[in-house]
Design brief:
FAD/NAD(P)-binding domain; alpha+beta; single chain; globular; seven-stranded mixed β-sheet; about 20% strand; about 575 residues
């Protein structure tokens, strides 16, 4: 079998960073990704292709969106080369400096972080540089006219909350030039796909995959660097099992050679590769699932496996039909959520850790693609009425032989005015919920024991603040309908293999090395012992960058996997 210095499972923010760093250190590294590659221009938009863009291998579906459903929570993650970077909203916020609980009371609540902000600063900077982090250029035209950004700033001012333009992993302009939509990116074709890229076209499609290559996704950045340095990327390869050997590890996987449409042949092939070091980076759901399935091979693994799950406090709300007064007259407040990237700004509610009175959180604006506006405005109830009016007008003109040509006016009347969607704005909330979820296997499937009870005060505060944001913008407020059923959706699952100061407290040490399992590391969101509070992608990548330093150092000292030592 092929043998490598290191095998990385998963190509998200942890796996891509780790793969690139190890390749740059001239180590022979192989990355295994179950999904396929998605070059710019291949992300589905039509109904036919979108219907197949879900991950459900038992139904013959091998698309991007993987939806895990548990008793009280649904989680959406991504399957594809570049992991969650393909469908995230590009935000690279650091975990606030004071949001790293490190006292004994925090340890008792399952939130102790054995690493602080200062230990991550250098790694934050390195990742921000690699991903081209920059704020939304709101001071330039045409970005200055982004109404949702201005609305969020005004709401934050009225509520007395800090507001900012967070760093985004998006290219808005070429170096030394003014930002401009749709301009070819200089050298943009120098990526592993070999396709050209263009600056952000402000169409709000970030969460569906950017067909213009404007997002600085992991495949276009870290993984392209890794390939240039000799890393081997294998897509369509789903890992099933792994076990320690005398030389390191044997990793067994199923290869499905996915074509450009996500289709696979009837036959899947099983392969085995070996490696001195194994790095799990399959995400906060995938990594605990793999470890639980293969637990018998690692009798020394921590009893904390599966604990401290968190949804990063994710919550969805809506400002509906906002109004404002202009010249003493109340008029619709236009917010145009489809203009711009999905997220442009963020406001922050303080935490008790930095002078607040409860658990802190962020609220961010959310954009939607224009086709969503069409779906909402031309819904099944309104469309027949508008269409019937148009047909009656045309029929009457035909019968009366009216010489006046008013088709344009009649067509305009047949269409919705679009004010519902133009004056409404989704709100994305995330913050410090209580990380008390526990994962386990049930009938061979991953199960999650987690409910909102311990975080009720947090979600209540989030809901009230979103209502105040809506009121400040003159709108009606609506929360996620599923919240009324005590059911939530997260796009930021964290925990399950948390870091700790010792084997009893955590599965891994502060460098991601698994206690009791020499040579095995984890580099993804599962190692977080609590929520990031902010969007977690940057912190996951920074932790992986730090973990890579330790792995590279071990190889530099010629240490075999059996000689790897955890933090104490």
């Amino acid at each position: 079998m092929d043998f490598f210095d290191a095998v990385v499972i998963g190509s998200g923010f942890g796996g891509s960073v780790m793969t690139s760093r190890l390749a740059e250190a001239d180590l022979r590294v192989c990355l295994l990704e179950r999904g396929r590659a998605y070059p710019p221009g291949t992300f589905p938009r039509g109904p036919h292709a979108t219907a197949a863009n879900f991950w459900a291998p038992e139904r013959g579906l091998y698309g991007m969106f993987d939806v895990w459903s548990f008793s009280d929570l649904d989680a959406v993650v991504c399957s594809g080369l570049g992991g969650g970077s393909l469908i995230y909203a590009n935000v690279l916020l650091r975990k606030p400096e004071s949001w790293f609980p490190q006292d004994d009371s925090a340890a008792g609540a399952g939130e102790f972080w054995p690493i602080g902000y200062d230990q991550l600063v250098a790694h934050y900077k390195r990742v921000e540089t690699a991903l081209g982090a920059q704020p939304y250029p709101a001071a330039h035209e045409p970005y200055r006219g982004t109404r949702k950004t201005a609305a969020m700033r005004e709401a934050a001012r009225r509520l007395g909350l800090d507001w900012e333009l967070p760093p985004l992993a998006v290219t808005f302009g070429n170096p030394g030039q003014e930002p401009a939509p749709g301009v070819p990116i200089t050298g943009g074709e120098n990526n592993l796909h070999g396709v050209p890229r263009y600056t952000c076209r402000l169409v709000g499609e970030c969460d569906l995959g950017c067909n213009f290559g404007s997002k600085n996704t992991l495949d276009l950045t870290y993984l392209s660097t890794a390939v240039r340095r000799g890393a081997e990327l294998r897509t369509g390869c789903e890992v099933k099992s792994f076990e320690p050997t005398d030389e390191g590890f044997a990793i067994s996987y199923v290869e499905r050679p996915l074509n450009g449409n996500g289709e696979v042949p009837d036959r899947a092939e099983r392969h085995v590769v070996g490696a001195h070091r194994l790095i799990l980076a399959a995400g906060a759901l995938g990594t605990p699932y793999l470890l639980l399935r293969n637990r018998s091979q690692f009798p020394g693994i921590s009893p904390a496996l599966g604990t401290r799950f968190s949804g990063n406090g994710d919550f969805l709300g809506f400002v509906l039909e906002a109004r404002e007064k202009r010249g003493g007259v109340e008029l619709p407040r236009l917010m145009d959520p489809s203009f711009g990237p999905v997220i442009t700004s963020a406001m922050r509610m303080p935490d008790r850790l930095d002078g607040g009175s409860g658990r802190g959180f962020f609220i961010e604006d959310a954009g939607v693609p224009d086709f969503v506006n069409w779906l909402v405005e031309q819904n099944a109830l309104a469309a027949p009425k508008h269409l019937l009016r148009f047909l009656l007008h045309r029929g009457w003109s035909h019968l009366t032989r009216d010489p006046r040509s008013e088709v344009g006016r009649q067509l305009s009347g047949a269409l919705s005015k679009g004010l519902l969607t133009a004056t409404s704005l989704p709100l994305l909330g995330m913050g410090r919920d209580v990380p008390d979820g526990r994962m386990r296997l049930r009938d061979g499937h991953l199960d999650l024991d987690w409910d909102t009870a311990a975080s009720d005060a947090y979600f209540g505060r989030m809901n009230r603040t979103m209502r105040e944001v809506s009121s400040a913008l003159g709108g009606h407020y609506a929360s996620d309908p599923l919240s009324y059923l005590n059911r939530l959706i997260t796009v930021h699952p964290l925990g399950g293999a948390p870091m700790g100061r010792n084997r009893q407290e955590g599965v891994v040490d502060s460098h991601g090395q698994v206690y009791g399992c020499p040579g095995l590391s984890i580099a993804d969101g599962s190692i977080m012992p609590g929520p990031a509070g902010a969007n977690p992608s940057l912190t996951i990548a920074a932790l992986a960058d730090r973990a890579a330093d330790r792995v590279i150092d071990d190889f530099g000292r010629g240490k075999r996997p059996s000689e790897a030592v955890n933090d104490s």
